[in-house]
C-alpha cells in the first residue's frame, strides 16, 4: 500500500523547512533507516531517515523548495510491483478542493505536467526544472528527461543542451553592474535568514551591556602542557577552549545569578550549567551544548567538544544537542582577535567573548613584566543581570583561569 513520506519536524520549534537534497531517486529501493533526503532547518542541514521499507515511487517536492510546512507530503513510498499514484493520499482526499488551488500555493503537488510554451504537445517537467530552464533561457523541448515517463528533472536542466535555442533571458548566476563592480547575488539560506532575524531581535529587544577584563593565561597554558604530556598515545588533547568551558561553568556555579534567563513574568535560575559553544559552519553558526560542564573533567569536555564541533560542521547534530543551554561562549582567539563583543543568544542572559592570548606588558608592584594576556568580554541581558553582578562574575572567572588548578580538583 502506498504511503506518504512527510516533511518531518526535526525540532520542537520547527514549523517549516527547505528540501536541500534528495539522496534517493525515484525507483530506488529504500530500507528502514536509510537516509533519503537532507532537510535545511533554521539551525542546520539534517538527514532524514526512512521509517518504512519499499520503493521511492514518486518525489512530490523537488530539491531547493523552501518553506515546506511540517507534515506536508514530500514523496510517495510504494511496495514492489505496486502502481505509483499520481498524488499523495492527502491530496487525493482533498481532490475536489485541490482543483481550484493554484500550483504556487500547493507546494506539495507532484511534478507538474506543463504544456510546452511554443508547441502543442505536453512536456512532463518538475516545477524546479521548469523554473531553472526559464531562468537559463533553455527551451523545454530541447531537453531530454531522465525521470519517470521522461519527466525533465533538475539534473537534466543542469546538463542541458550545448547551447540554448533561445537567447538567455537571465544568467544562471544573475549579476548587476554598478560603478564598474560586478555583484554576485547569492540567495540566503534558511539558516542565514533565521540568524539574521534572531540576531536583530536580540540587539533590538534585549538591552545589552558589556564588561571586559584582562586575564593572564601563563599558568593555564603551563597546566595545559602538563596535562597533554600525560596523554598516552595522544588519546586526548586539551585545548584552551576546553579549559575556558570548564572555567566558565565553575564561575557560573560560584556566581549563579548570571546563569539565568529573563521572562516577562519571572527570571529563571538554573541549577544545571549547560554551556553553548559557538561553532562556525559554512553558512553561519550553531551552538552545540556541553551539558553539566561544571561536573565534567577537562578530558571529558575535550572529547565531547571535539565530537560536537565535528558533527556540527557535518550537519549531523541531533536537535537536543544544540537546543537549550544556559550560557554561551564565543571564541575567536584562533583568529588573532584582540577583543570583541558577542550578541546574546536568547533566551540566555549572557555570552562570553574570548579573544586571543598575546604577550603584553603587565605591572606587578613597581615592576613591569611580560605575560600572556587575553581580553574577555561579557555581554549580559540587563533585564536579568545588573552591572555589579556581571563584574563580580568576570572577577570570579579571572581568579579561576589565573589559578587553573581549580579546573582539575
From TrEMBL:
Segments forming domain Lipoyl-binding:
2-78
Q: How is the cofactor bound?
A: Binds 1 lipoyl cofactor covalently.
Which residues belong to any copy of the Peripheral subunit-binding (PSBD) domain? 124-161
Region Disordered: what ranges? 87-120, 159-179
Its UniProt entry gives the catalysed reaction(s) as: N(6)-[(R)-dihydrolipoyl]-L-lysyl-[protein] + acetyl-CoA = N(6)-[(R)-S(8)-acetyldihydrolipoyl]-L-lysyl-[protein] + CoA
Specify the signal sequence span.
none
Obligatory cofactor(s): (R)-lipoate
**Regions of compositional bias (Low complexity) in chain numbering:** 88-114, 161-178
Q: What does this protein do?
A: The pyruvate dehydrogenase complex catalyzes the overall conversion of pyruvate to acetyl-CoA and CO(2). It contains multiple copies of three enzymatic components: pyruvate dehydrogenase (E1), dihydrolipoamide acetyltransferase (E2) and lipoamide dehydrogenase (E3).
Q: How does it assemble?
A: Forms a 24-polypeptide structural core with octahedral symmetry.
Q: What is this protein called?
A: Acetyltransferase component of pyruvate dehydrogenase complex
* Protein species of origin: Gluconobacter cerevisiae
Amino acid at each position: 500500500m502506498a504511503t506518504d513520506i512527510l516533511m518531518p519536524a526535526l525540532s520542537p520549534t520547527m514549523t517549516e523547512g527547505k528540501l536541500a537534497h534528495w539522496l534517493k531517486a525515484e525507483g530506488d529501493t529504500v530500507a528502514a533507516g536509510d537516509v533519503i533526503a537532507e532537510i535545511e532547518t533554521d539551525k542546520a542541514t539534517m538527514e532524514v531517515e526512512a521509517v518504512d521499507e519499499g520503493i521511492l515511487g514518486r518525489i512530490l517536492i523537488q530539491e531547493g523548495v523552501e518553506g515546506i510546512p511540517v507534515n506536508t507530503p514530500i514523496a510517495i513510498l510504494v511496495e514492489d510491483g505496486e502502481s505509483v499514484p499520481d498524488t499523495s493520499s492527502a491530496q487525493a482526499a482533498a481532490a475536489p478542493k485541490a482543483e481550484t488551488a493554484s500550483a504556487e500555493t500547493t507546494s506539495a503537488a507532484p511534478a507538474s505536467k506543463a504544456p510546452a510554451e511554443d508547441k502543442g504537445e505536453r512536456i512532463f517537467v518538475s516545477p524546479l526544472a521548469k523554473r531553472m530552464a526559464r531562468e537559463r533561457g533553455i527551451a523545454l523541448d530541447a531537453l531530454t528527461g531522465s525521470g519517470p515517463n521522461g519527466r525533465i528533472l533538475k539534473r537534466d536542466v543542469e546538463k542541458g543542451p550545448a547551447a540554448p535555442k533561445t537567447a538567455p533571458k537571465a544568467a544562471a548566476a544573475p549579476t548587476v553592474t554598478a560603478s564598474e563592480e560586478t555583484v554576485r547575488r547569492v540567495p540566503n539560506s534558511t539558516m542565514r535568514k533565521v540568524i539574521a532575524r534572531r540576531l536583530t531581535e536580540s540587539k533590538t529587544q534585549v538591552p545589552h551591556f558589556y564588561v571586559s577584563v584582562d586575564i593572564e593565561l601563563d599558568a593555564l597554558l603551563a597546566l595545559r602542557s602538563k596535562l597533554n604530556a600525560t596523554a598516552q598515545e595522544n588519546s586526548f588533547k586539551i585545548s584552551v577552549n576546553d579549559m575556558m568551558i570548564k572555567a566558565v561553568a565553575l564561575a557560573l556555579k560560584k556566581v549563579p545569578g548570571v546563569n539565568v534567563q529573563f521572562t516577562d513574568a519571572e527570571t529563571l535560575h538554573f541549577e544545571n550549567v549547560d554551556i553553548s559553544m559557538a561553532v562556525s559552519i559554512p553558512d553561519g553558526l550553531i551552538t552545540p551544548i556541553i551539558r553539566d560542564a561544571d561536573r565534567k573533567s577537562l578530558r571529558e569536555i575535550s572529547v565531547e567538544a571535539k565530537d560536537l564541533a565535528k558533527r556540527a560542521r557535518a550537519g549531523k547534530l541531533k536537535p537536543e544537542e544544540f537546543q537549550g543551554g544556559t550560557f554561551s561562549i564565543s571564541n575567536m582567539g584562533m583568529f588573532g582577535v584582540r577583543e570583541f563583543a558577542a550578541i546574546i543568544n536568547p533566551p540566555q542572559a549572557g555570552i562570553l567573548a574570548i579573544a586571543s592570548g598575546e604577550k603584553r606588558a603587565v605591572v606587578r608592584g613597581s615592576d613591569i613584566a611580560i605575560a600572556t594576556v587575553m581580553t574577555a568580554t561579557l555581554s549580559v541581558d540587563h533585564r536579568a543581570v545588573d552591572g555589579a553582578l556581571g563584574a563580580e562574575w568576570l572577577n570570579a572567572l579571572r581568579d579561576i583561569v589565573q589559578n587553573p588548578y581549580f579546573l582539575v580538583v
